[in-house]
Amino acid sequence: MFTIALTRKVCYATGHRRSGQMYKNNPNSSISSAKTFTLELLRDLQVIILRKRFYYCHTSHTFNEMTAVAITAAVLFLTAYVVSLPIYGEDNETCGYKSCHPIKEGLINVHIVAHTHDDVGWLKTVDQYYFGSKSDIQKAGVQYILDSVLASLKQDKSRRFIYVETAFLWKWWRQQHDTVKHQFLRLIRNGQLELIGGAWSMNDEATTHYQSIIDQFTWGLRKLNDTFGDCGRPKIGWQIDPFGHSREMASILAQLGYDALFLGRIDYQDKEFRFDSKTPEMVWRASENLGNSSNIFTSVLYNTYSPPPGFCFDVLCSDEPIIDDKRSPDYNVPKRVTDFLDYVKNMTKRYTSHNVLVTMGEDFTYQDAHMWFKNLDKLIHYANQLQVNGSNYNLLYSTPSCYLKAVHDEAKKHNLKFPVKTDDFFPYASDPHSYWTGYFTSKPTIKRFERLGNNFLQVCKQLYALTDLGPEDWADLNVMREAMGVLQHHDAVTGTEKDHVAHDYARILSKGFDECHFTSATALGKIVTKNSSIRRDPNPAPAIPFESCLLTNMSQCAFSENNEQFIVTVYNPLSRPVTHYVRLPVTDGYFKVTDSKGTNLQVQAIPVPNTIVNIPGRFSKATQEIIFMAESLPPLGFKSFYVQKTPTLIKDPKQAKVQESAEVKFNQDTGLISEIYMNGRKIPLQQAFMFYRGAVGDNKAPTNRSSGAYIFRPNGTEAVLVSEKVTNKVFKGDLITEIHQVFNDWLSQIVRIYNLESLIEFDWLIGPIPKEKVNGIEVITKYITNLKSESTFYTDSNGREMLKRVRNFRPTWNLNLTEKIASNYYPVTSKILIRDPHEDLEVAILNDRAQGGTSLKDGEIELMLHRNCLNDDAFGVGEPLDEVAFGKRLVVRGSHYLVAGPYANNSAKKSLAAQERDLAQRKLLQAWTFLSPTNGSTFEQYKTKHVMEYSGLKKPLPDNVHILTLEPWIGPNYLLRLEHYLEKTDDPILSKPVTIDLKEIFAAFDIISYRETTLGANQWLDQNQRFVFNATDKILSMIDDGDDFGTGNYGSSEADDDDDNYLVKSKSAWTRGAKYWRRNQLETNRINANTHVAHPVLEHDLHFAENSSITLNPMQIRTFIIDIKMVKGKNHT
């Protein structure tokens, strides 16, 4: 009998599949390690053959001596092949800070950073950009960039290059032969090629939600770690093209364990002030709750991310090369070097240290990398020759990491200090009349589709994890992961892409929905079918074809419309019970809904308004929607309901009516809202729909800027009222009251008051917008109250912490106000609110997608809903923002949720802020409705063979704790993130730290062991070490002030002087700790020779401390890789 470790080695070497799965390579292994492994394997096999018999991959199958000889021969061949390969192993690894070229003390060190910025879709689709097709739109082919850079770097070890977009890198990597992969890996291991950023795409920071940002970083980092190991781990945030920068993004990067963040675009006034005061580099304190753990060194690039003027040596550029043949009449070395050094001299006046970073790259440059490097070689050589004549400039190939190391070393040596920033970089303006605030709202349907995608991705990942599905479902899940990663791109969810690219983004996400639907349906089928894993029933229930209806926003669902009896299964992805109102389009008649206990629920039917019936592209016969309340849905679980059409209305007399939790009064003359009552307070409130007419110009000067996809620029200072009167129809029922409002022939709304919800929903419908001759129309809604808000309002940062905004004001410079409206617009990812401190009164609006918002007058909240611009703004898209669907201008439907009441002295169980955060989560991760047939079964027959209520948790988590992530990871490991989702000032009770026991969370599986990682799950937390920079403000200094935020204080421990300590030392956070590989991703992502598995030392990496309890502080997210064991037979509550 032999050890599990030995048999697993043999299983892997012989390529044996167990249950359709194959053990995978260790992503941190090097080729030299593979040699060592092979020699160990040979030694082990000798013992095996002598014994003539062993357990074959955990089964009782044996093999004979011929089989042993065959295995030995195969291993000998493998050994010969591996030994013949060049060694680029741990002994020769010089990546990271160890790979930096030495700088010269006493000189200005000019760090030449060669890079390309490759948009994951913009003017062309993702595939068009990668393959280089559609050159008539843009000459750009990413595959050629990577091919060309690889060839140029191999020619000279001194050259350096950085790459960012994992989506493109992964696409390229999968198409390469092993020889090319070895060459690429060598460049990464010797530090010539540095991977930075690390996310699937360079995400936008205004319209994205933090959950999706974290997810797409996690997936990108996972691929890099799997493929390139430690040397592929990014240390730098490289957000060079997003149009403004959020504080939450900086906080996320700090929690990822990154050392610094580089920015390309900040407001032109802010940039001028910072460069004049030599403060473009700063310590960004990115959270009011997390303390020093959120601090990150931040540097604003000098020229966005472009090369100095005249120094673009690319096939796409027309700048002169450096001609160093003195016999040529075009010899230009002295002039070119002088021009470059003059440029650098101006740079040095703007930065604090004696190191400056010069970006050498642009959009899709380096398709012919030889042109770049040949000229850069000359520039560096001839500039440095001048040092013998007294020049104090030293040029060197570098990377952002090496630049950072040089700045850090200098700051430490000379006690340099940097200013502190605590706000964000919104809104962004590139000139006095170009405020990039239009994209906060542009293409509102893609924004909603993306948010829905996140909702379903979390459902899909959770259901997979709760049922431990197989490799085929893993591949389906990955399609959705990658689709959502693409949608986070700063020209995707932003709505700043060409229309045909937006359609392709929708196609990509639709495919993700389709694939993930298979996964979720399979998982649900395993849970719902009783005895699905125990074959005792001679007549088991057939597989259940679950369906989802994605067109309910236009009251269309073929399944509910065409079936007279069916099952509704409502899954709750939150960690606490929720109540959800289910709405289903049906044709006519009455319906009975029965829950798992056999109780007939209240069902309310409301007619579909004509404004929805007439939406272009609606192919539905539904005339009404039935509504019922799915009450107390279990956390990470579901309830199923039996729905059946009946000839008459059925009411259960035992069910009493519930009083409405909110009230709305309407003006009898105009039909508009005049007052609301909520949380014990009456508030005068009016709602108005209005629109701005967009400015029109030739864009040749800032004063002639047009409103477009990026830019919001109204042609006046006042919005135009859509209608002074409205027609209302009221539908009052036992569950909800609806007021159907029609403002004109292209704008309508449904106002909803729920019996059990302290909120008012505004379900608006806009379009097709009429076409004007000159100006576009940009539609807004205003909520007008009598609150004395003192020029102040608050908006969320990527759906997480709230930031204070003051009208006509910037916290860090004196604002020169040139666009009174656009300059006061801010991104609203989930919430905007105003407060009256004198009356202790707050009004908040939560939305269902990212939008632009403001408060232009005290007591008002304004949100932009839909944009139609007839002119391009000349920032690259090249087409007006004029969307069409089904031959007509785009129709958009969405919702706002109004919450109001006292915010300081609230007698309710939860504070108003806590109620709002709970509501935001329930709308972000709504209960997901699955439909399935009854297959002719009666309620009793269905209940006999199916589970109708289930929870994956042993009990609900505390009200302030959220399972942010639960997903399959590798082998028996899952990825788990727990989040305290309240700020420290949100609630007197719930904002306190909370302790939970990891072992007592899940009912579907047991946690055998665990270990905490950084936020991106690519490094053990206790091995993360970040640079520290001193700040000018001692109170806000990066130096550890003793705050304790869990097991790791990011930014609180400093690297030693020894170069070895500049490397963040860590193990592979998901492979070294894995007992063995179980999942086959059905794709080749590694070099074939790199084929050894990790030693099975899980107990050394994943562990339980003496006690499995963890503490979460306000706004803290803690990330764990857990080893699990499924609990059989627990598929129902």
Automatic annotation (TrEMBL):
<dbReference type="GO" id="GO:0006013">
    <property type="term" value="P:mannose metabolic process"/>
</dbReference>
<dbReference type="GO" id="GO:0046872">
    <property type="term" value="F:metal ion binding"/>
</dbReference>
<dbReference type="Pfam" id="PF09261">
    <property type="entry name" value="Alpha-mann_mid"/>
</dbReference>
<dbReference type="InterPro" id="IPR011013">
    <property type="entry name" value="Gal_mutarotase_sf_dom"/>
</dbReference>
<dbReference type="InterPro" id="IPR000602">
    <property type="entry name" value="Glyco_hydro_38_N"/>
</dbReference>
<dbReference type="Pfam" id="PF07748">
    <property type="entry name" value="Glyco_hydro_38C"/>
</dbReference>
<keyword id="KW-0378">Hydrolase</keyword>
<keyword id="KW-1015">Disulfide bond</keyword>
<dbReference type="InterPro" id="IPR027291">
    <property type="entry name" value="Glyco_hydro_38_N_sf"/>
</dbReference>
<dbReference type="InterPro" id="IPR015341">
    <property type="entry name" value="Glyco_hydro_38_cen"/>
</dbReference>
<dbReference type="GO" id="GO:0005764">
    <property type="term" value="C:lysosome"/>
</dbReference>
<keyword id="KW-1133">Transmembrane helix</keyword>
<keyword id="KW-0812">Transmembrane</keyword>
<keyword id="KW-0862">Zinc</keyword>
<feature type="domain" description="Glycoside hydrolase family 38 central">
    <location>
        <begin position="434"/>
        <end position="509"/>
    </location>
</feature>
<dbReference type="InterPro" id="IPR011682">
    <property type="entry name" value="Glyco_hydro_38_C"/>
</dbReference>
<protein>
    <recommendedName>
        <fullName>Alpha-mannosidase</fullName>
        <ecNumber>3.2.1.-</ecNumber>
    </recommendedName>
</protein>
<keyword id="KW-0326">Glycosidase</keyword>
<dbReference type="InterPro" id="IPR050843">
    <property type="entry name" value="Glycosyl_Hydrlase_38"/>
</dbReference>
<dbReference type="InterPro" id="IPR037094">
    <property type="entry name" value="Glyco_hydro_38_cen_sf"/>
</dbReference>
<feature type="transmembrane region" description="Helical">
    <location>
        <begin position="68"/>
        <end position="89"/>
    </location>
</feature>
<keyword id="KW-0479">Metal-binding</keyword>
<keyword id="KW-0325">Glycoprotein</keyword>
<dbReference type="InterPro" id="IPR011330">
    <property type="entry name" value="Glyco_hydro/deAcase_b/a-brl"/>
</dbReference>
<dbReference type="InterPro" id="IPR028995">
    <property type="entry name" value="Glyco_hydro_57/38_cen_sf"/>
</dbReference>
<comment type="similarity">
    <text>Belongs to the glycosyl hydrolase 38 family.</text>
</comment>
<dbReference type="GO" id="GO:0030246">
    <property type="term" value="F:carbohydrate binding"/>
</dbReference>
<dbReference type="Pfam" id="PF01074">
    <property type="entry name" value="Glyco_hydro_38N"/>
</dbReference>
<dbReference type="GO" id="GO:0004559">
    <property type="term" value="F:alpha-mannosidase activity"/>
</dbReference>
<dbReference type="InterPro" id="IPR013780">
    <property type="entry name" value="Glyco_hydro_b"/>
</dbReference>
<keyword id="KW-0472">Membrane</keyword>
